[in-house]
Design brief:
InterPro entries: SNAPC1. Helix content is 51%, strand content 0%. By secondary structure, the protein is mostly helical. The relative contact order is 0.14.
C-alpha cells in the first residue's frame, strides 16, 4: 500500500498567518511608513497645489507603495492584510489634527483600495468595501470644512 503526498501542503511554501498582520510587528512599521508618506506629501504639497492627487500618486509609486499588494498571496492572510492596511489609513484620518495629513491618508486609503489587482493569474483575493467606523465617517464629513483655508482650497474638490 502506498500513500500519496497530501496536495494541501507544498514543501518550501511559506504562508504568513493572518494574525501576523494585526501584530505590532507589522502594524508599527506600517504606521511609520504612512507617517513618512504623509510627511513627504505634506512638505512638498506647495509644489503640487494644482494637481495634488496626481502628485500624490507619483509619490505613491516613487516610494514603492504600488507594490504593496504583492506582499501577500494567500487568501486568508490577504484578507487580514488588506483590512489592516485600510484600518491604519483610517486611524490616520481620525487621529491627524492637520487637515492636509487627513487628506493624504484619504488619498492613500483610496489608492490602496482601488489598486487591488482585479485580473491576475492566479486570481488574488479582493476586499469589496472599506469598513468605516463612525468616528472616521464623522472626520470625513468634517474634512471639507477643515480644508477652508486658502492654501488648502485646491484640495476641496477631492
Amino acid at each position: 500500500m502506498s500513500t500519496s503526498p497530501a496536495p494541501s501542503v507544498v514543501r518550501g511554501d511559506i504562508t504568513l498567518q493572518p494574525s501576523y498582520f494585526t501584530s505590532s510587528l507589522f502594524v508599527e512599521p506600517l504606521r511609520e511608513d504612512i507617517a513618512h508618506l504623509d510627511n513627504n506629501a505634506s512638505s512638498s504639497y506647495v509644489n503640487a497645489s494644482k494637481q495634488p492627487f496626481t502628485y500624490f500618486k507619483m509619490l505613491w509609486t516613487d516610494y514603492g507603495w504600488s507594490w504593496l499588494h504583492f506582499k501577500v498571496f494567500d487568501g486568508r492572510a490577504r484578507e487580514s492584510f488588506i483590512r489592516t492596511v485600510l484600518r491604519c489609513f483610517a486611524e490616520y484620518i481620525v487621529d491627524a489634527v492637520n487637515p492636509l495629513a487627513q487628506t493624504v491618508a484619504l488619498f492613500g486609503m483610496y489608492t490602496f483600495f482601488m489598486s487591488q489587482p482585479s485580473s491576475s493569474g492566479p486570481s488574488l483575493h479582493r476586499v469589496t468595501h472599506i469598513a468605516m467606523p463612525l468616528d472616521m465617517y464623522k472626520s470625513l464629513l468634517e474634512l471639507p470644512q477643515n480644508l477652508a483655508p486658502p492654501h488648502l482650497a485646491p484640495l476641496q474638490p477631492y
